[in-house]
Design a protein that fits this description.
It is found in: Cytoplasm. S-adenosyl-L-methionine-dependent protein-lysine N-methyltransferase that methylates elongation factor 1-alpha. With 239 residues, this protein is α/β, with parallel strands linked by helices. The chain folds into 2 domains: 18-59; 68-235, 3-Layer(aba) Sandwich (Rossmann fold), CATH 3.40.50. The chain has 5 helices and 7 strands; from the N terminus they run H-H-E-H-E-E-E-H-E-H-E-E.
Length: 239
């Protein structure tokens, strides 16, 4: 059974007020206390409706639950959308292929924002086999144990190494070299602030002003690095 909800008077911006109560002799008149309680109820109902709407939007890009044992931390919606918009701008409407290394949140948002974009998710967690041919099993300990058809096939590569160690970054860098196209190509790296010098040394990357956020609070501050100058996008290169 559907719940009936009271509706706000369309002529009253702030909800019910004493002036909106019928002044009919036969109509009951609410006390100021009752009016306040009713307005509070209506405000709460509106808040619940907005929350339900937001939940529905999030549900469209819902992922499996995070597994901390695999160092999984999903991006916030704002971060995922911002990075996805940047990736799509790099594709520039051309038939460009995009590789997402250990960043399933980005994959999901890209697929939602442009279902036609050519994507490949490289991920250790086999729960993402649900993505079919868009999924490739990936273990950073074996950086080039990948299907040969993926070699040098991607104009845009986005990587989020699972661990904040030099060894992990070096091995992910080998995977990036395996995947990325010769010539003009674009690399985005999302990792901890502690990797700043290593990102420059190993991959020649510069930090951007945009600060990635996650749905779970992390103790390590994250940064976004790129191998190209994003101009005014992503907060620009940090000088």
């Amino acid at each position: 059974m559907e719940e009936q909800q009271l509706e706000l008077n369309p002529n009253s911006v702030n909800g019910l007020s004493e002036s909106t109560v019928p002044l009919d002799d036969d109509a009951p008149v609410l006390s100021s206390y009752a009016l306040a309680a009713l307005n509070e109820f209506l405000a709460e109902q509106q808040s619940h409706s907005a929350a339900d709407s937001d939940a529905g939007e999030t549900e469209e890009v819902a992922l499996v639950s995070e597994d901390w044992r695999l160092s999984q931390f999903w991006y916030s919606a704002e971060t995922a959308r911002t990075v996805a918009e940047e990736v799509l701008s790099l594709c520039d409407g051309v038939d460009s292929r995009v590789a997402c290394i250990a960043c399933p949140t980005l994959y999901a948002y890209l697929k939602k924002m442009d279902p036609n974009v050519s994507l490949q998710l490289l991920e250790y967690d086999k729960r993402f086999e649900q993505y079919g041919t868009d999924y490739t099993f990936y273990d950073y300990n074996h950086p080039e144990e990948l299907p040969s058809e993926l070699k040098h096939s991607y104009k845009v590569v986005v990587a989020d190494p699972p661990y904040l160690s030099k060894e992990c970054l070096e091995k992910v860098a080998e995977t990036i070299s395996f995947l990325i196209q010769p010539g003009e190509s674009f690399l985005l790296l999302l990792t901890g602030e502690v990797q700043k010098e290593r990102a420059a040394e190993i991959l020649g990357l510069h930090p951007c002003g945009f600060r990635p956020q996650h749905t779970s609070k992390l103790g390590n501050e994250f940064r976004l690095f790129s191998n190209y100058d994003p101009g005014m996008r992503l907060g620009g290169w940090e000088k």
